[in-house]
Write a structure and sequence with these properties.
Elements (H helix, E strand, L loop, with lengths): L1 H10 L5 E6 L2 H12 L3 E6 L8 H10 L5 E5 L1 E2 L4 E2 L2 H8 L5 E5 L11 H4 L3 E5 L11 E5 L1 H9 L9 H8 L10 H17 L1 H21 L3 E2 L8 E5 L6 H12 L4 E2 L8 E5 L6 H11 L1
Parallel strand pairs: 1-2, 1-3, 3-6, 6-7
Antiparallel strand pairs: 4-5, 7-8, 9-10, 10-12, 11-12
Length: 290
């Protein structure tokens, strides 16, 4: 969230218009951050669990060419839905708007080619597929996006991109870094490098497909029409309370799954297949659920 706020504070100025894809809790968070900094968040509501139609974004930009950016997710973590960032980047490359992607849960679990796909700003964090405790975030910034940074008048201090860039040139950081987490991340990256980045994504895909087939086999439904490799959102029968189910799985089997957020609270559970996981983990979770 801090990195999301940093992107907003550094790219835009009060009064700027930004288009926000809202298909879950974290799309809503983009809008809340933009509004907190005095920007006008133009919503594109697509429904929780629904796939993004990039053409709708293009149509919005055509009607409102003053929009400075599109703020979206690679994977909307509250639903597990994957968005077509490649197609979206192609559309926006022909406009003046920059593409800002929250890839916090999706990085490494899903392909993301920032330059090839025209992603101007990509945000990631240490605690998901990078397999490191929370506390680190990472941001890539294109030349197109740097032009916005140079003209931003929003207040910032700790999150100042220009200050970070100047210190990076000296192999330093503006403030005291979380050295212990950096060392932990180094070891995680070594594991990813050893396995191979493409193989890591394929492993996530394999676990995701297995999870969804198992869920369907026990007569439960999958939320949405574009599920990702990150997690599987399981729609529960109306007579089952998701929070009570989670408590039961934890107490009886020692298995933890995430619950629904916002309007989906108590209605779904979210099974992760993210990070250092293999088939045995999925088998245990599905057995406990059944």
């Amino acid at each position: 969230t801090g990195a999301m706020e940093a992107a907003v504070a550094n790219l835009f100025s009060p009064g700027d218009e930004v288009l926000v894809v809202r298909g879950g809790k974290f799309g809503e968070r983009w809008a809340e951050i933009a509004q907190a900094f005095g920007m006008k968040a133009v919503p594109l509501d697509i429904g929780w669990g629904r796939a993004l139609d990039p053409a709708r974004v293009g149509n919005k930009i055509q009607k409102k060419p003053q929009i400075k950016a599109v703020l979206t997710q690679l994977v909307e973590t509250s639903t597990g839905t994957l968005y077509d960032i490649e197609a979206l980047g192609k559309i926006l490359s022909e406009t003046g708007a920059v593409l800002v992607v929250d890839a916090i849960s999706g990085l490494c679990a899903q392909p993301l080619y920032t330059d090839r796909w025209g992603v101007d700003v990509a945000i990631a964090s240490s605690q998901k597929a990078l397999m490191t405790p929370p506390g680190l975030s990472f941001i890539t910034i294109s030349e197109k996006a740097w032009k916005l940074v140079e003209n931003s008048s929003s207040p910032k201090y700790y999150w100042d991109f220009k200050k970070a860039r100047d210190d990076l040139a000296k192999l330093q950081t503006p403030y005291t870094p979380a050295i212990s987490l950096v060392v932990a991340l180094r070891d995680s990256l070594r594991l990813i490098e050893k396995e191979g980045l493409e193989k890591v994504a394929k492993r996530h895909s394999r676990l995701a497909q297995a999870t969804r087939k198992a869920v369907l086999a026990i007569n439960l439904k999958i939320l949405g029409d574009s599920p990702s490799n990150v997690l599987t959102s399981v729609v529960l029968p109306s007579k089952i309370n998701g929070e009570k189910l989670r408590e039961l799985m934890q107490a009886r089997f020692g298995v933890q799954v995430a619950g629904g957020q916002g309007s989906l609270s108590g209605k779904i559970i979210r099974i992760a297949h993210l990070g250092w996981m293999d088939a045995s983990d999925i088998i245990v979770v599905i057995s406990a659920l059944e």
